[in-house]
Amino acid sequence: MKLPTSTHFLSLLACSTASAYLITGDGVNCRDGPGTSFKALKTYQKGHDVSISCQTEGTEVNGNSIWDFTSDGCYVADYYVKTGSDDYVTDKCTSGPSPPPTCGAPKSNAATVDLIASFEGFVPNIYLDTNGDATVGYGHLCKKTRCAEVKYPIPLSVADGKKLLAEDMAIFEKCITEMTNDRVTLNANQYGAVVSWSFNIGCSAARGSSLIRRLNAGEKPSVVLPEELVKWINDNNGPLEGLRRRRKAEITLSQKATTEKALPPVC
């Protein structure tokens, strides 16, 4: 199926009625195709009205793979448009460029796995955590009775515990990759520092943070990470020494030179 380009827009507009919706994010790019690897043609600010002529599938943004073709002749991720639905609200587009291949989230390097492991603590046998949930290794929450989903023998060896930890990190690698835009360039150690931070604080907190906002605005990671990570050292009762040490370790990792690239992901 072909999708409309900006050159096809006038003829498409003649046979379809556009609906107007608000942009919900700041600095949202409108592109010449339905995906983050397409060229940005213009940028919308929060509260801007856009008219949607049709919608199509594209690269996933925060769990939503729909892209909206606007009256400006470009595509914007539906995640940032207040349509009131995560599904189609207009006709599907019928001509134009195909979406680029979807790249998976990069895997964290061994240095990142080791950093997280050093702060999570290791228990080789199944135990109950403070919430009463069955847990094993580096904080893996059991999904089945006796952790039957774990493919490694229990009691775990340290090596197998780190392999399981690396698998558990995938959800945080995915959310960091999805919440950052194509202006964000991170090497493997910078990426690892951000993944470790999100593993500790959760994806929701990371998504609403000034750290992610500044990276998406195009600021240099070498400036943003040291300035922002140190802010995340408090619990409800104030600063914690353990969190202070973890943030320091993440900053140190982010500043370690490497030629290995992480974001944007390479297909």
Automatic annotation (TrEMBL):
Pfam families listed in its UniProt record: Phage_lysozyme
Keyword Hydrolase: yes
Domain of life: Eukaryota
Gene Ontology biological-process entries: cell wall macromolecule catabolic process; defense response to bacterium; killing of cells of another organism; peptidoglycan catabolic process
PROSITE patterns for the chain: PROKAR_LIPOPROTEIN
Record carries keyword Hydrolase: yes
Keywords, ordered alphabetically: Antimicrobial, Bacteriolytic enzyme, Glycosidase, Host cytoplasm, Hydrolase, Signal
Signal peptide residue numbers: 1-20
Catalytic activity: Hydrolysis of (1->4)-beta-linkages between N-acetylmuramic acid and N-acetyl-D-glucosamine residues in a peptidoglycan and between N-acetyl-D-glucosamine residues in chitodextrins
GO molecular function: lysozyme activity
Protein's recorded name: Lysozyme-like domain-containing protein
Species classification: Eukaryota, Fungi, Dikarya, Ascomycota, Pezizomycotina
